[in-house]
């Protein structure tokens, strides 16, 4: 079939390397290379200029990319139509989220109104869920990345200040509020690259001229909270994402306070679909904290 070959080509073009594309598509590098070679040989074209490990699109490759987007959109529309036939008396809705904290109340309201619609929630970082939306793997994406793209509709669903979480017996736990300079000698636990929480943390520290003594990367909020509870360090995270967990203390930050905004995205071409439109209608009005 042609679709796997085109998807492999699109992912290599987007990622800029076969290695990254293979990781994103969860298959081997030789498989990706073979699919692109098969596509080129089948039509006697060259899609990339190959300069060592560097891959640059040829003219035909550049013209092919938007056509693949159109094809994937049509496939997504067909899939969506078949999954959601029956005027919301069935079907499904796929939501990609960076965390369930801000969207779950809306999901609960939607499920109460449309119990026959199956809702699935997939968790990833901000970059990953937006890529999944672009690839038609999900129908809605919750992300803290503010993206300006005419192909996307965006709604703000939450505005949340960052706070510091520390072990209850930590020296900072007794303070009513802290400044960023208090973190200089702490082991700061950071999210993975691509996380907006990490980006806000790094921007705040850089703006305050703070150089950390040490840091550690942990790829999930839950794991970070457990590591803090075990005394492995402290971390900045949005207030609404901090669990009510024994062993944790929450410290407010003095001005300027980093603030995370959470957005809900859908493809503009799909906003009129009955299930997506019904979910958007169930969203409560956004209120500032």
TrEMBL record:
List the NCBIfam families: phn_lysR
Query: In which organism is this protein found?
Result: Chitinimonas prasina
Question: Where does the record place the HTH lysR-type domain?
Answer: 1-58
Q: Which UniProt keywords apply?
A: DNA-binding, Transcription, Transcription regulation
Instruction: Give the record's family classification.
Output: Belongs to the LysR transcriptional regulatory family.
What's the name of the protein? Transcriptional regulator
| Record Pfam families | HTH_1, LysR_substrate
Q: Enumerate the PANTHER family for this protein.
A: HTH-TYPE TRANSCRIPTIONAL REGULATOR, LYSR FAMILY TRANSCRIPTIONAL REGULATOR
